[in-house]
Amino acid sequence: MGWRRRRTRGGAYGLALALLLGLGPAAGCATDPAEPRPVAARDPVDGRGRPVTLTVGVFGTFGFQEAGLYDAYMRLHPDVAVRQTSLTRNDVYYPQLLTHLTAGSGLADVQAVEVGNIAEVLATQAERLDELGTAPGVDRRAFLPWKWAQGTAADGRTLALGTDIGPQAVCYRKDLFARAGLPTERDAVGRLWAGDWREYLAAGVRYRERAPEGTAFTDSASGVLAAVTGGVSPRFYDERGDLIVAENPAVRAAWDLAAAFARQGLTARLQQFTPGWDQAFANGAFATIACPAWMLGYIEDKAGPAGRGRWDVAPAPRPGSWGGSFLVVPSAGRRRVEAARLAAWLTAPAQQATLFARRGSFPSASAAYALPEVADARHPYFGDAPVGAIFARAALGVPRAPIGPKDALVSQTLADVGMLQVDQTGRAPDSAWHAAMRAIDNALDR
């Protein structure tokens, strides 16, 4: 399930995932306990008459428990009990995880790691994690190659198994498109910007000419920036692990394009994952938004019943991914073999398909895409859009991009220190770019 702008620095994404397919109420992040909560189960015993208890440490609302996967595992393994611990926010969870890994204590048997943190974990904690690539039940061929690579350390050992990813589309308001004289059918909408994010900008200019009063083409320049950089390779780091954001022309081109949305008055000038942004969904303040799979549930929640049938989903101009997570098994655990089996089972294609169907987390196991829970998935809130097929095609086209140890920090700084100033205060893009680069250097003591 991932943090995905599951907000890498906050908790909004967990709720978004829980509501993706409109399959029932979510357990919001705010209610997640900070202490272990037992999962209902029989009193399991091992062959020697003693309980075998495995703990899983997560952040936000991961969905494993809510989708019934722990209960299913315990039915298959009567000698095992599974208990989950959860912290609401990754920015609280992750520093604790690093502390516990370094100390070799206080760890769950299986721990979740957000994609923005995975490179740092593999670079600094590899000797404290078990190899999972050769664990029973793990099939490398079942996973997207780029996702598998993200969980593989420099020495070639795969230490993290992918859970979800955030393949991207564009969500749009059909009613607003119609009033602005743009096509409304999803294939025709996708053709407006197929192959090039600059065509998405051009569509925005067309929308602006006849925009319904009080509406903008898209929510924010930062959202555009995240979407475009999500399909860039290399992005913030190169294959050697060196930070290249300042000199990478692809990132600067994405920056300039996102800034053009702000400078041309095409955004609602909102900051994502804030109360004002949430309210804008309900108010119909913008017509499109770059939309990873997990955001569908967020839109449904915030736009409410009035948005049903007005929103639809079209392919993004180019494939990209925004978000995702992994499971690791700490070497300090007492039940490492059993923990590896559990991690392998939770991330297997069948379970990933179940998690998508019940909670909305899009599988990182490409072998799940042919399963009916994914292949036949449609979303009634979004005009019965074939979301399984749309996001599967996007996932298969995502380029392999190196992930660096401070990927999350770089992304957050570009958005909230740099592009937000362009969007909301009219700061010159060059000035905001240099301010963001300085902030990144300062944060990394460069």
From TrEMBL:
Signal peptide from the UniProt entry: 1-30
Any single Pfam family the record assigns to this protein: SBP_bac_8
Keywords: Signal
Chloroplast in keyword set: no
Transmembrane segments: none
Ubl conjugation recorded as keyword: no
InterPro entries listed in its UniProt record: Bact_solute-bd_prot1 (IPR050490), SBP (IPR006059)
UniProt cross-references to PANTHER family, sorted A to Z: ARABINOSE-BINDING PROTEIN-RELATED (PTHR43649), SUGAR BINDING SECRETED PROTEIN (PTHR43649:SF32)
Designated name of the protein: Extracellular solute-binding protein
Organism expressing this protein natively: Streptomyces wedmorensis
